[in-house]
Amino acid sequence: xxxxxxxxxxxxxxxxxxxxxxxxxxxxxxxxxxxxxxxxxxxxxxxxxxxxxxxxxxxxxxxxxxxxxxxxxxx
Length: 75
What we know:
two-stranded antiparallel ribbon
């Protein structure tokens, strides 16, 4: 009788631990922003020196979370 009780207790503890670990693995889904550039490169037309040039570069968020652009640099 003691052997059956001990085996049942061990199985119960193992089952409980497995349930706790599996619930923790399925925690809340992390949402992240994913940057996308529809236009990878833009070549400006020739201009006279000192003339201002401009172009709007489109940045899209293909992710499900917030996309936080912290720094932009030209090349």
